[in-house]
Amino acid sequence: MMNKVTAACIIIGDEVLNGKIIDTNSRFFAQFCFKLGIKLQQIITIGDDKQQIIETLHAAKKKYQFIITTGGIGSTHDDITYECVAKSFNLPCLIDEKCKLRMQEKSNPEGRLSPQALKDYYKMATLPSGPNVKNYYLFDDLWVPICCIDRQVFIFPGIPQLFERLMTGLTSTVKKIYNLAEEDIEYVRFFVKTSMTESQISHNLKLLQEDALKVSPEIKIGSYPHYGTGFNTISILGEKKDEKYLLELMKRAEKEFEGQQVSTEEEDEVSNKR
């Protein structure tokens, strides 16, 4: 039985809500969870509002084992994530000397910044502090840590390139914390393309899902219309251990829906076309 680790992703930033930037971090995290067999159950986008961040964290902590936040850890007035996460655990935020030293070694802030700018700069080294806090420094060329509290909440920067690098670098740590064994955590997914409409396949798709649930509650069958292309895609997803049965479902879908298998790359290209 797969270790049922549940996860949530909290995207923090007014710039996401007002449309200035496009959030790609949640999609990357979803892919990260998929590869590890973690059940991502919620993605939440909120603004730079203290009460909203704290309330969101309080609610998430009660439901999910693995929670990440991205965004809001810079040096400006609206970067309040560290402070709010700390408050949600009743912890103080203090200058982390190791983080400060790494900042000094890599960018010489004292030699180039005014006193006020220096104070603002070290806001990024003012981290939640306490016995249940661990900071992960994953790369020698980066001073920014992944701050983790209670082995449950992980605080990431919002910059996509940095987020993706740190998230990937945390893979072995996540496996260790949540006891994820290589042989039984992986999800697999197959796609079948059909020219039949969703109304035409709806009934038999439901029967396919009902049969699949008798084998495992983790098997999920979905249909994804692609507007203007003349075809829909059926997705068949489940655990690696059930791969033989999933392949049987795929063959059944090909026959019942007059379809053909398509690769993940082909499906992604159509699904993400703008």
UniProtKB/TrEMBL annotation:
InterPro entries in the cross-refs: MoaB/Mog-like_dom_sf, MoaB/Mog_dom
Protein name: MoaB/Mog domain-containing protein
Gene3D superfamilies from the UniProt entry: MoaB/Mog-like domain
Pfam families per record: MoCF_biosynth (PF00994)
GO biological process: flavin-containing compound metabolic process
CDD domains, per the entry: cinA
Domain of life (superkingdom): Eukaryota
GO molecular function: FAD diphosphatase activity
Domain MoaB/Mog as annotated: residue spans: 8-177
